[in-house]
Specification:
The protein is an alpha+beta fold and 623 residues long. The chain is 68% helix and 7% strand. The strands form two sheets. The chain has a five-stranded mixed beta sheet. Strands 1-3 form a two-stranded antiparallel ribbon. Helix 5 runs antiparallel to helix 6, helix 9 packs antiparallel against helix 10 and helix 13 packs antiparallel against helix 14.
Amino acid sequence: MRNLLKHLILHILCFGCIFPLSAREDSPAENIRGTIQNKMIDAFHDSMGFDYLTKEESEVINLDSIFDYLESTKQYGTYFELERILIKSSLFRGEIRLAIDRSEQMYSKASALSHTLGTALALNAIGEVYSYTGRNKEAGAAHEQALELFDQMHSEEIHVRMLLVELIEYNLRIRDFHQAAHFMTRLNRFPVEKLSSQEQAVRHIFNAYCQLFNGSVKIARQHLDEVESMKGKLVPGIMQHFLIADAMYWERIGEYEKSLTTYDAFLNTNYAEINSSLYKEVLQNKADLLIKMGRKEEAYEQYGAVFSYIKSSFEKNYPKEIDQLTTRFQADRLTYQNERDRLFSYRLYLGGIAVCTLALLLFLYLSWKKIFRLRESKRSQEVMIQKAERAIRKKNMFLSNMSHEVRTPLNAIVGFSAVLASDDDSFDEGSRKEFCEIIKVNSFQLLKLINDILDFSDFESDNITFNIHSYDAVKLCKEATETVSASRKLEVELRFDTELSELMIETDDARLRQVLINILVNATKFTKEGSIVLKLELSDRNTAFFSVTDTGCGIPLEKQGVIFERFEKLNDFAQGTGLGLSICQLIVTHMRGRIWVDSNYTQGARFCFTHPLKYKLKAEGIA
């Protein structure tokens, strides 16, 4: 933390020591302690976690005394903030084992105290430790769990912003660009006025990272140009990322020399090795760039530098792991030399394999296409067979149901017509009139049967037409009631009830009248006493509600679910085809309405249906 060491030295000169353990409350030492704590935390927050304690600062500050004091005064929020800074600083300095130990202790302490902020900061620190040790899966899980805790607190915006930067960097490292863009979008939502100049620079740099990985180099350049004016104010940790992003930009647009120069500029700074993980990554990137430029000998030397740095940085912390890494590196180097010698031979083999693979893929594709056509043909045949079987069953069922219904009225018409046409004088005038009435009723029944069959056939073949105009539903209901009263000898009361004087709806009046008459006639068949009431009202401002209520025998519950199916009859001995209610349902459905039997009414039967006041065409445009 750039000015912290100067501040400490000044106070050492003024007071002679720092943080004596015997200091009383409100003593100068305590004021110094509070000032140092605040400066460390503010500097860490202001830099989005990229400013940290150097080794010199850590040696000068008596951190154990600070932690003891904070714990004794139960200032756990500040305690965990400083722990977080210390762990991050240890990671930057390459003290991995120390960071692991402190992060585990921090998480255990926060969990024991049930301290939400401490737990979130500990998870954040653990995620960074995982990242530095290459355990990417565990790092992502720890970071996301920390973000959930920060979100629950609703007041830790600076921690959320710092964690979002780490999540973006983590997802870019594992090449999950979708998640990186998601977290970048969330970071961009924070207003600029809430961000320090360091935070603004970090946001621009990581926006540039995301745009470079997405291929939007122009937008990336705009973000990098925004940082140019802030370069003098940036802490080394942020400046490192700026130089890396700038080098990546030049590499993306093919300016390899400029990219190499920028990498060298980074490596030649006096703060290049502050972040050991980042320094190693830049060494690796430079070696990869040299390979792209065709400078393989220099790239080989650079890879050696990467290996040497890893060995020198971590052998104190991971001697066993470094030995394994050395063995693996030497094996890889030997493999590389052997592969280079045999590269020319492999090219010939690869060419032959590629040709054979293409031929095999072509064969598999043609075979799959043929098999697919055969399966489709077989499936089509099965569908056609099923359709034919259904058609045969429907035909047989139709003939079975119609044979009796057609024969009965036709026999009556033929029989009584023959009697009337005979010269038999044994029948008086009254009997002859009765025979004529029977012929008339059976003719009407036969005509209705034929009409029902024709209507149902039209619906089945989608050959039905509707003439939609505006009609008065009140008038249609009155006419339907009068038609049924005039055509049938009723022994019950048939009436029409409504509180509406007029209700204009867009409909086909003939089809709506057909529905009303079918339901009313159906009610007359099963109502021997009492009343039949047709009622019209509004269920809402856009829908008319019709109901026909009778006091007849009613409909059993088990029949109510199938009463609208074709050829379904409540009484198999009653006249009719069993198509009337099915046709009613088809008409009402076509008009965008709904028809049903009211199961709550138990004094007879009640049929209800709705009809919209405005007719709407189907989505396909068919009227």
